[in-house]
Specification:
single chain; 37% helix; four-stranded antiparallel sheet; five-stranded antiparallel sheet; 188 residues; alpha+beta
């Protein structure tokens, strides 16, 4: 109060006003807005990265599960085959999109690559709603006619395209599968 009375005494025409200074200045408001923008941008980028990583993991897992299933089914059947129907003979090396074998119970099984799938007697070994075959081949090699044939199965799978941008980015890389199988029960 003493300061107000001093002001009155210095300037007699001065009207007495008490200015209440509560609130924020423009600079303070801009600083807070900038801090919120920076923190929000960091939080959103962390969430997007986490979502993409999760999606990529799901895509790779689905592709690997499909590929491992197809590979294990073919390997088991070919390994225990009684005979190789086509390509036969495979001396020195034959690369084909199909292979036919005779099972121990004298049934013929044909594995074929085509139409974005790998099929066993026409039935797909893959979930064609999830994956597509990018490349596939069967390589039969036999050093001599007296040696047992060795079959190399090689294929790569891609995740089928989806509507989500993150899933499309995650599905761009193919997963490669390969194994060599010696036919151990072949009739000569």
């Amino acid at each position: 109060m003493k300061q107000i009375s001093n002001l009155k005494s210095q300037n007699p025409n001065h009207k007495s006003k008490i200015i209440n200074q509560s609130g924020f200045t423009l600079i303070e408001m801009l600083a807070v807005i900038i801090i919120f923008i920076v923190v929000g941008t960091i939080a959103v980028s962390i969430l997007v990265t986490s979502f993409r990583t999760s999606t990529k993991t799901d895509v790779v897992t689905a592709v690997q599960n499909n590929g491992n299933y197809a590979l294990s089914q073919m390997a088991k059947t070919i390994r225990d085959a009684r005979g190789l129907v086509t390509p036969f003979p495979c001396s020195p090396t034959v690369v084909a999109n199909t292979i036919s074998i005779t099972t121990p119970d004298n049934q013929e099984v044909t594995y074929a690559c085509g139409n974005s799938t790998i099929a066993s007697n026409g039935a797909s070994l893959l979930d064609t709603t999830q994956v597509a075959v990018q490349a596939c081949s069967f390589t039969c090699s036999q050093d001599s006619k007296s040696d047992l044939p060795v079959i190399l199965i090689a294929f790569s799978l891609l995740q089928k395209s989806s509507s989500s941008f993150a899933e499309q980015k995650a599905s761009q890389s193919a997963v490669f599968f390969q194994t060599s199988i010696g036919i151990r029960n072949i009739n000569r």
